[in-house]
Structure formats: C-alpha cells, structure tokens
Specification:
22-stranded antiparallel beta barrel, mainly beta, Maltoporin, Chain A, five-stranded mixed beta sheet
Length: 882
C-alpha cells in the first residue's frame, strides 16, 4: 500500500470519523455489530479517527460524541431508503411522513437532536453535499440535502457527529455532521433484491441494488453503485365525511353539507363520479399515506495514486426519481366547484368535467446530479494538502392533474405544469494540515483552509394556464348587472335569450368569484419566477494536541463572509480527559451560524393548509417581496447558536458505554409564522386589512386566498438532551442499546409570530424519549436479529388556542429478521418491521361529546406524527456477494 493512501485516510479535513476496518463496531455506538469472532479480530487492527486531526483515536477516545456505522450495520437494516436507515440507527434522528404537503410528500423533513435537517451538515466523502430544491413550506422551512438520493449500496460506512461543529465544518453544522463514506473497492461487488409490503396489503416495494468495483491499473479504483426502486402508495384513510361535506354513501350523513343545487348535479352522476374523483386508484376520495414513488440512482467513487505523495480522486451521482400523491378533495359548493355565469348568461359548473368532484393529483420529478474532484497529497515539508471542487444540482419538476384553473371556467385544462425549482451549488476548497513538535505529549496538529461557494435558487415559470387570471376570478365579469342590482343592457340581452340571470339576488352565480391558477398548486408566474443567488468566502483554523497523556485539547475558529448577510466568526473548544485507561471525560463549547438559504429567501407558494383544522387556500410569500413587506415581514437574518456538551465514554470488558449531555441555545430561529387570516369581508377587521394589503401588492386572485404567512427570525429556543449508547458482547450474542432524551423550549416572546397551537407543538409534538434496543445472535449459518423501537409520550395541540390537546401514549414497535447463509456468496433474509402491527393513537380527542381532530377529511392518524403510522411490513431479501 502506498504511503499516500494511508495518509489520505487520516488527513481529510472535514471527516468527523474514519474507520480503517469494519471491526470498529465493538467500540462504536452502532446499533448493530459484527458477530463475536469478527469483533475479536477487529480488536487487533488499527482504528483511525481523524475528527481531532491528530493521532489515531477510537470513538470512545474522541472528544465529541460520534456514531460510526459500518457497511454491515447498514445492511442489517431492512430499509433501503438511507433516511429510514439513519432513523433506525440514530435515536436522535427523527423522520416524518407528510402525505399532503406539496413537495414535502416526496422529500421528507428530518431532524437531528431536535434541530431541522438544514441545521445538520451533510457530507459525502468529507465534502459538503448540496441542498435539495425543496423548501418545506411550514414550520422550520427546512431546505437541506436530500439524503434519499444516496443509495445505501454505495456506502461502506456512515459517521454521525452529534455535536455543534460549525467552527470546524461550516454553516449548517449547528446540530451536528453526517458524513457518508462511499465504497472504494477495486474488485468484487454485491447484488441485492428486496421485496415486501405492508400488512394492509398495500405499499408494495421492490428494490434492486448493487455495487461493483474495478481496478484502474495497479494504482487506482472505480467503484460504481446503483439502485432501482418502485414503491406503491398506502392509504390509512376512511371515506371523506365531515360536518361540512360527507360523501360516504354508507353514512346517514351522506350528502350533508354539499351544495346539490349546482348546475349539472345529479345524485346518480355524483355517486358514479366518486370512483373517479381521485385518479390514484384508492377507494377513498382523499387517501392519507405514503405516495407512489420510483427511483433510479447511481453513485461512483474513484481514486488514482499518481505517486506516493499525490492522489487524484473523484466521485459523483445521478438520481432520477418520481412521486405522486393527492391533495384535498374538492366537493360541490367548496368554493372551487361553484356555478358561474358564462358570457351567454348560462350556468356552468366544474361538475361537467368531474361529476363526483375531484382530488388534485400532484407529481414531482426530481433530478439530482453532483460531481466532486480533487487532488490531495503531501508537500516536501510534510504539510498535507487537499484541493477540491464540487458542483451539485437538484431540480424538481411539478405536474398537477385531475384539477382545474377555476377562473378559466369551461376553457380550463385538467393538467398543468406549475413550474420547476432548481438549486445549484459550486464550491472550491483548499485544505492543509501540518504537524509541529512543541513539547507536548503528542505533536500539535494545525489544520487550516480556504473555501469559496456560489449557490443559486431558481423558480422556473410554469405554463400560462397554471397561473393565468381567467374572467371568473371576479364577480360579474361581463357587466351583466348594475350597482343597484338591476340588469344592464348586456344583462337584459341574455335574459331575453333565456338566461335565468337575477341581478337582484346576491346569491346569483353572476356574483361568484373563484380561484386563480391550477387549483391545489397555482403555477409560478413571471412575477415570481426569478433566480436568487449569493456567494460565500470562508477561512478556518483548527489546533489540537494531547497536552499530557491524559488531557487532549482542541480549538477551532472559522470566518465566513456572505454576499447577502455579511460576515460571522464562530469558534469551538473541546477536551478529552482520561480518568483511567477505561474511562474518559469529554466536552465542548462552541458557537454556530446559519444564514438563510437563497431558497428560503425566495420561496413562493399557494396551497391548501389546515390552520384551524379546515382546508384553507394559504399563500407563503418571501419576506422581502412586496407582499411580505405589505404584511409586515422583516428582512431575514442569520441564526446563531451556542452549543455545550459534556459526557463520558468507557470500555469495561465486554461493555462499551457513552453518556453525553448537550444543550443548544439557538437565537433568531428561522420559522414560518402562523397562518394569518385573510378575508374580503370589511367587517373582519385585521383579516380584511390583510386582503387589502394583498390587493395593493398586486397578488392575482387575492380574493380567493384565505390565509397568508412568511418566514421570519421569529424567536429563540433552548434544546437540552441526553444520549446514552451501550454495546455488550457475550459469546455469539451482541446486545446494543441507544437512548435519547431531547426537549426544546421557546426562550423568548414568540406571540407576535406563532399562535398558541404552534408554540405548544414546537415544544411538545415530538416524543422527548426515543430508544432502540437490539439483540443479534449467530447460530453458525443462521443469524437472528430482534429490535425494539421505543417512543416516549408526546402531545399535540388541536385547537389554535391550544385549549384542546391530544395526549399520545408511549409505545414500542418490534422488528425481527432471520438471515441464512446459503453459501459463501449467497444469503437470504426474511423478516418484518413492526411485527405486531402497532399503530399510534388515532387522531382526535373527545371534548363535550364532540370529536376534535388536528387533521380532517378522511384522516385516521395524525399525518404529521413522527411515529410511524403505516403499520406492520414484511419482506424478503436475496443477497449475492462476489
């Protein structure tokens, strides 16, 4: 092995932890471990950890808490989505399913230590991973990397640094760092075929994934990994039957609340049309569950040793995925399916296109591309260097069908292209490391570097029909009526021609105004279609050494300057003190900084949301737009943080244990303000003033928007937590356990930005306790894995004033997998996740005899629940290694 290859493993600047062999499992806080024979062998091999950029250190010897997961750990998880794998392995990593959330249905929001994804820095091979193009339209407005684009077959390991690390790794590393290590094999490979479905008989999934390695002469490698997956939708729903509209033919309230007097309505046609109201093939008009999805993903990793002191490397990916799901059901009389007067005075209703009403179907096609290249090596003075360049692009192309642009009346198409979102990043970096002998126990390691990054976010204009303002967006578009309620000359003409026009009746369809744009997701018009960009230059320095045999110290400073937000200096100090050969104390204090992304500054969206449990067309506008300013928004500014951690790590014979306390003080937290009511009724006070503000700002269809919001630096929070990780080995059995406690409290007056419900949910809607306990036993060729996933109790406010709260009980979900080794190269596995088909409590709480729910419209389980509500899932998998 060439000198440089060994060197390159230990000098990568951004790598939190790098493991030389998969045997690190015994000393790492991974949920799964190798069998006892493999672990004993691993103890004889050198472990390399470069988070401190000093001498090799085990995870237990690190100054900060780090989880290290080997390739075998990843394979032992039955999921193929890398997001779900992390959720299983890291208790402080949570993931939610949001079935009716625009692009959030396809790119799921996640969090680490209670912080949203965009406060965790994602690296691949120690290089920053680009963000997705999706900005979550509610809550934290997260815009982070789409981890699902990284196929698990491409990974030889994952390192999760659970500590504030912005001073070391840059903006976003407030909660921690996740580093994905790509496979670097120059021969051999693997192939896996996985299939399964939920106990309910839906959600069928088929995945083929594999890897193959090639040698580039005798000095290089090229490793290629790929994945093809196809997943069907699920439905954990009941037929739509609410007090304002019921379409459940088996209910005594069938047709209650519907306007059955609209033009063209007949009960027989309506019942027959219900089967086609949702083209997703479900038996309900509005399904709640995971969307249909399919993906093709490729990732490559390569390197070539030019000499003993110089190496070229390159890696990148291509991912194409597609998902589709449903929006809220539109029924007769809901404001969209209404009678309007055409130019000849006759009546028209969208029921002519959709006799049973309709549920818009939303599709997102996501293309993700990246390329990273670099040159690393060592100068004559033994200073190491790493010059790199990366480019990343994520594009989402939206399609909306089974819907209409109501303002176009009968001329509306039923399929639209609302527009695209594109996020691009280009970064150049130079990183250096130098060792100095200053008389301490070990050499002082000086790491320093420079970086420059350009990033842009583009909203691409949709097709004109998706945002056009048709004639029926305003009452009486053809001037049939006079202000005094009498018919004009044109009105008299259509009456004489047989029209039922009655200008004296305020309820006549001539006065109806309907929504603008493709209903469910109006397209991006030329007004909102633009590119937001910025650049950043940064410099950092990091010093670390063992002062004595017992005391290790590390300090880091980082300065970054943004073209849109100015500059910031952040720092960090960490220590590790050995109380004995088996027990270490460790801790850190650091500051952090995260500038709102160009996407968060420019996102515009009009969609249907549930501010008070009822569907309302809600608009999200940029803070600095004319609309945002008219609504009172202030210019955005960076979030800043102060992080503390204190813990211990120990190794006691067969037991390894880490315990870490942490505290994250986040100031000027970025968040979407609670939905602000909008009304066209002059008697509605402030809500009417907001309507006038929208009109003054030139918002098309302002009269059809019922709510607005925008992103702001709204408040401060304090997050306190505890991580406990233990691994115990006994003969052929390995027991592993991880426990996380996480609590977030608002630490400032947030009443100007959030209503009581949103404040309550921010502090209480996630389980504060989460744990994973697993046992793996080997019987020669057969291994059995049992896993228990524990979730603590949590609460969710249902009413906007938080006077009604639903309490969710703690629960445990069990997984079971059996793996049989047929030969040295072939194995089969079968098992089930959530084997006892456990669900969280159903959405809703009874108050004074009435059922109050957070969601509506056919929902059974709270859709925003971070505890999985899909039920049991069984699967089988065939693995081939060559």
């Amino acid at each position: 092995m060439l000198k440089l290859h060994k060197l390159s493993l230990s000098i990568r600047r951004s790598l939190p932890v790098l493991v030389a062999t998969s045997g690190l499992v015994m000393m790492s806080p991974s949920i799964y471990a190798q069998d006892a024979e493999q672990t004993d062998k691993a103890n004889l091999e050198k472990i390399i950890v470069t988070g401190s950029r000093g001498a090799p250190r085990s995870v237990a010897d690190s100054a900060v808490p780090v989880d290290v997961f080997s390739e075998d750990d990843l394979v032992s998880v039955s999921f193929t989505d890398t997001n779900d794998i992390l959720k299983t392995l890291v208790p402080s990593y949570s993931l939610s399913r949001q079935p009716i959330s625009d692009g959030g249905s396809f790119i799921r929001p996640a969090s680490l230590r209670g912080m949203p994804t965009d406060k965790t820095l994602v690296l691949v091979n120690s290089k920053r991973r680009h963000r997705s193009a999706l900005v979550q339209i509610g809550g934290s407005g997260t815009q982070g990397a789409d981890i699902a684009t990284i196929p698990s077959s491409a990974l030889k390991g994952v390192e999760v640094l659970r500590d504030g690390a912005a001073a070391q790794y840059g903006s976003d590393a407030i909660a921690g760092v996740i580093n994905f290590q790509l496979k670097d094999n120059d021969e051999g490979g693997s192939l896996s075929v996985d299939m399964g479905q939920y106990y309910e008989g839906d959600g069928e999934q088929f995945t083929v994934t594999g890897n193959i390695g090639f040698a580039l002469g005798d000095k290089g490698f090229f490793s290629l990994s790929g994945e093809i997956s196809d997943t069907s939708s699920t439905s954990r729903s009941e037929q739509y039957c609410e007090s304002w509209a019921c379409v459940d033919v088996d209910s005594a309230n069938f047709l209650t609340g519907l306007d059955t007097s609209v033009s063209g309505y007949s009960e027989d046609a309506f019942i027959a049309g219900l089967d086609n109201a949702n083209l997703g093939g479900e038996n309900v008009v509005q399904p709640w569950g995971q969307p249909n999805s399919s993906a093709t993903r490729l990732f490559f990793n390569s390197g070539y040793e030019i000499s003993e002191t110089m190496k070229l490397y390159a890696f990148g990916n291509y991912s194409a995925s597609e998902g589709d799901g449903s929006f809220y059901y539109r029924y007769p009389g809901n404001g969209t399916i209404e009678d309007i007067r055409l130019a000849d005075g006759s009546l028209y209703s969208p029921l002519e296109k959709f006799p049973g009403g309709f549920t818009p179907r939303f599709t997102g096609e996501i293309t993700d591309v990246s390329i990273v290249g670099g040159l690393e090596g060592e100068f004559a003075n033994e200073m190491t260097y790493d010059f790199s360049a990366r480019f990343g692009s994520n594009k989402i192309e939206y399609t909306l069908e089974n819907t209409i642009n109501p303002s176009m009346g009968p001329d509306s198409p039923t399929k639209f292209h609302p527009g695209d979102l594109i996020n691009e990043e280009l970064q150049l970096s130079a990183d250096f490391t130098q060792f100095f002998d200053m008389g301490f126990s070990t050499e002082v390691v000086l790491a320093f570097g420079l970086t420059y990054m350009e990033e842009s976010y583009e909203l691409v204009e949709g097709d004109p029909d998706s945002y056009s303002v048709g004639p029926y967006s305003s009452p009486d578009p053809y001037d049939f009526c006079n202000a005094d309620g009498s018919a004009s000359a044109d009105g008299l003409a259509v009456i004489l021609a047989g029209s039922s026009l009655d200008c004296g009746n305020s309820a006549d369809a001539v006065y109806t105004a309907v929504g603008v744009g493709s209903n469910g997701f109006p397209g991006y018009s030329d007004i909102y279609s633009e590119t937001y960009d910025r650049d950043m230059a940064g410099i950092y320095v990091d010093l670390s050494t063992d002062i004595t045999d017992a005391l290790f110290l590390q300090g880091a400073l980082r300065y970054e300057d943004y073209s849109d937000f100015g500059s910031e200096l952040v720092g960090k100090i960490a220590f590790k003190y050995s109380l004995s050969d088996e027990v270490n104390l460790r801790g850190s204090v650091g500051t952090g900084f995260r500038a709102p992304t160009p996407g968060q500054q420019g996102t515009t969206n009009v969609s249907t949301r549930l501010p008070d449990g009822l569907p309302v067309a809600t608009g999200l506008f940029p803070a600095l737009s004319d609309v945002g300013q008219a609504l009172g928004a202030e210019a955005l500014k960076p979030e800043t943080s102060l992080n503390y951690s204190l813990g211990m790590s120990g190794s006691f014979d067969e037991l390894s244990l880490t315990v870490d306390f942490y505290r994250i003080e986040l100031a000027d937290r970025f968040y979407a303000v609670s939905t602000i009511d909008v009304s066209t009724n002059p008697d509605d006070g402030d809500a009417y003033d907001k309507y006038l503000a929208l009109v003054a700002a030139g918002v098309d269809g302002a009269n059809t928007i019922g709510g607005v919001n925008y992103f702001q630096n709204a408040f401060d929070t304090v997050t306190n937590g505890l991580d406990i990780v233990a691994t115990y080995t006994l003969d052929d059995t390995v027991l592993t356990g991880s426990l996380n406690y996480n609590s977030t409290e608002i630490d400032s007056d947030a009443s100007l930005y959030l209503n009581n419900e949103d404040e309550y949910d921010l502090e209480n809607a996630l389980p504060k306790w989460r744990g994973v306990l697993s046992a793996k036993h080997n019987f020669d060729m057969l291994s059995i894995l049992i896993r228990a996933n524990f979730y603590g109790a949590y609460e969710n406010a249902i009413s906007s004033d938080a006077s009604i709260v639903q309490e969710y009980d703690a629960g445990v979900m069990f997984d079971l997998e059996m793996n049989y080794q047929l030969s040295d190269s072939i194995s089969i596995a079968a098992g089930a996740r959530n084997i006892f088909d456990t669900y969280p409590d159903k959405d809703g709480v009874m108050v004074d005899g009435n059922l109050n729910r957070d969601d509506c419209c056919g929902v059974v389980y709270w859709s925003g629940n971070n505890v999985d509500w899909q039920g049991g899932y069984y699967y089988a998998r065939l693995n081939y290694v060559f």
